[in-house]
Amino acid sequence: QVHLVESGGGLVQAGGSLRLSCAASGRTFSNYHAGWFRQAPGKEREFVAAITWDGGSTFYADSVKGRFTISRDNAKNTMYLHMNSLNPEDTAVHYCAARSRGNWAPQSPTEYDYWGQGTQVTVSS
């Protein structure tokens, strides 16, 4: 199993940028596919982006495509989410998640076995 810890959230003005990090420990991070999800107050958990174990393929929700970039550095056991052109609709708790390698449905939360505690992103107008 792996333990995941998010960091990098905070308060930013509309149009600004943030970089979230997800640090993995316990097992080699390259053994896992990983992704980012978010949940705003009163809404269901929403898929944001995902990346394969080797970074060879990435997946994005339509709402963030072109604005966000997911990446990973397996040598550092870390995954990142670079968020640009933020708007108030991006305000949510952001979670990183991981699952063992194999065939999977990146956008489905039930595909993931391990979750971080979340980091708050707040975008002001």
Write the layout of secondary structure elements.
Layout: E1 3-7, E2 10-13, E3 18-25, E4 32-39, E5 46-51, E6 58-60, E7 68-73, E8 78-83, E9 92-100, E10 114-115, E11 119-124
Characterise the protein shown here.
There is one protein chain. The protein is mostly beta strands and 125 residues long. The protein is 0% helix and 50% strand. It has no helices and eleven strands. The chain has strands spanning 3-7, 10-13, 18-25, 32-39, 46-51, 58-60, 68-73, 78-83, 92-100, 114-115, 119-124. Strands 2, 4, 5, 6, 9, 10 and 11 form a seven-stranded mixed beta sheet that branches. A four-stranded antiparallel beta sheet has the order 1-3-8-7, with no helix packed on it. β4 (32-39) and β5 form a beta hairpin. It is globular, with a radius of gyration of 13 Å. The mean pLDDT is 97.
Q: Major beta sheet, specifics?
A: 7 strands, mixed
Spans where pLDDT lies below 50 across 5 or more residues: none
Q: What Rg, in angstroms, do the CA atoms define?
A: 13 Å
Number of DSSP-assigned strands: 11
What is the global morphology? globular
Order of helices and strands: EEEEEEEEEEE
Strand content: over 45%
Instruction: Give the overall average pLDDT.
Output: 97
Distance between the termini: 40 Å
Helix tally equals 0
- Helical content stands at under 10%
Estimated structural class? mainly beta
